[in-house]
């Protein structure tokens, strides 16, 4: 905390040149060029995270290259809308902090479970969209009360869940690395695996030997270079770009009217619970970083933006939205705290979503190249969960048991995909999602071991994440959360 006055002075010096010194840095506007470049940097930091979920789910559904481009563009468009809600705010909606919103990773595994248990794959996306709409609306209603219940989601719970998110997604990256078609003779060939390895090496080298902006966009650069290297091997297909329109609007309910299946709704409500927990932790961390602590009112407004953005996203064929923690790290690194900079990034996302050509560029990237980058992307999610668990007090036997059992329950669908084959199909949608089952297990076990029948003191209870409590001690861990 001793360094804070120095940071404040440096920021004030910059404010004299860049904006009105009477305003808090969060509410300042920067010169146009700096606003644009800083906004683009936020887009670059989160771009891979936004396009990965639609790529994963779209591939599982069996979408064509053109349809995959459309789904990716829709995710960019809805991420822009959700970011506007969060940064600019309207009524009691929006934290009005430099908060980037986009598709949450927490929903990917449950959505894949819904796809796997839907007989007609054409119905999979409408079922997913219907479940997200209901979960978003319920979350919007529950936002004020949830901001008071966050004490039941301490680091031992959130760390377990975030770790499970990364572990659950890693098999997707491994599948990408083997090639685009599991039925093809060259699936898993040395050529495909080599392309994945080269891409992984490029990302690691950039992260190790570069600094600043280039280091932040290492994954994006790795995807570009990996794609270029794949051209001589015939692994790159440019047809999605040539077939895409320059301008296009994500037509509402392009994949069909939403369908409402109870099991899918329950599964996505669990995801919404996880997403709201992560967003709350991220708001607490971001509030500390920008020196505008997030109180209960701010958290409730931020959660309303998250949940309303999620409820509106399916209208434009998008998925559940949540905070992007990597952008919180970018705010901490650059010390540019203006929410209007992030809003500018949201504008870029909207424009990219309205240009199918821009959205189609990611469709050009060969699956093995995506697989190589995915190892870093998804592995970082798991590592972020482990970082959170380090802060969870694992020297206590109770917490070790909570982590051990919740991880074991969550990994079941990965190691034994047919484990729940005897259960009803509706139940399998929930049980086959390691994220959902692991989260429920962690919450219940934490209640049993750390709350029920025990005094709430430092020796028996994992430090709760209550608004305003111990923010400085946990900010770095909270900022590491992923969506």
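^ structure tokens above, recovered residues below v
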């Amino acid at each position: 905390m001793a360094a804070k006055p120095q940071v404040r002075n440096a920021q004030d010096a910059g404010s004299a040149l860049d904006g009105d010194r009477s305003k808090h840095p969060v509410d300042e506007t920067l010169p146009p060029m700096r606003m644009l470049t800083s906004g683009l940097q936020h887009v670059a930091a989160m771009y891979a995270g936004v396009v990965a979920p639609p790529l994963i789910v779209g591939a599982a559904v069996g979408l064509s290259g053109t349809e995959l481009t459309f789904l990716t563009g829709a995710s960019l468009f809805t991420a822009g809308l959700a970011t506007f809600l969060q940064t600019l705010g309207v009524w009691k909606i929006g934290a009005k902090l430099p908060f980037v919103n986009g598709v949450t990773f927490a929903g990917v595994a449950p959505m894949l479970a819904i796809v796997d248990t839907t007989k007609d794959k054409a119905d999979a996306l409408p079922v997913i969209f219907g479940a997200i709409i209901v979960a978003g609306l319920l979350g919007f209603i529950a936002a004020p009360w949830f901001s008071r219940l966050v004490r039941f989601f301490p680091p031992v719970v959130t760390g377990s869940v975030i770790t499970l998110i990364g572990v659950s997604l890693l098999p997707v990256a491994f599948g990408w690395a083997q090639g685009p078609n599991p039925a093809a003779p060259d699936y898993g060939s040395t050529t495909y695996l080599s392309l994945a390895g080269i891409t992984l090496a490029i990302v690691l080298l950039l992260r190790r030997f570069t600094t600043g902006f280039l280091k932040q966009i290492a994954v994006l650069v790795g995807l570009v270079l990996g794609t270029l290297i794949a051209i001589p091997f015939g692994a790159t297909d440019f047809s999605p770009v040539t077939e895409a329109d320059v301008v296009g609007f994500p037509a509402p309910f392009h994949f069909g009217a939403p369908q409402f299946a109870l099991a899918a709704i329950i599964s996505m409500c669990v995801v919404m619970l996880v997403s709201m927990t992560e967003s709350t932790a991220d708001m607490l961390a971001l509030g500390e970083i920008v020196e505008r602590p997030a109180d209960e009112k701010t958290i409730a407004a931020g959660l309303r933006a998250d949940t309303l953005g999620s409820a509106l996203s399916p209208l434009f064929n998008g998925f559940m939205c949540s905070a992007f923690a990597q952008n919180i790290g970018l705010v901490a690194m650059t010390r540019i705290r203006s929410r209007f900079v992030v809003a500018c990034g949201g504008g870029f996302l909207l424009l990219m979503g309205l240009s199918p050509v821009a959205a189609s560029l990611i469709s050009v990237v060969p699956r093995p190249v995506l697989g190589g980058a995915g190892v870093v992307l998804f592995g970082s999610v798991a590592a972020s969960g482990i970082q959170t668990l380090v802060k969870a007090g694992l020297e206590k036997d109770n917490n070790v048991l909570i982590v051990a059992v919740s991880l074991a329950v969550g990994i079941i669908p990965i190691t034994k995909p047919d484990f729940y084959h005897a259960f009803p199909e509706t139940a399998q949608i929930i049980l086959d999602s390691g994220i959902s089952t692991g989260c429920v297990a962690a919450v219940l076990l934490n209640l049993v071991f750390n709350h029920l029948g025990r005094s709430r003191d430092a020796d028996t209870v994992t430090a709760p994440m209550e608004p305003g409590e111990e923010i400085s001690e946990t900010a770095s861990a909270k900022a590491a959360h992923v969506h």
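Strands lie at 101-103, 321-323.
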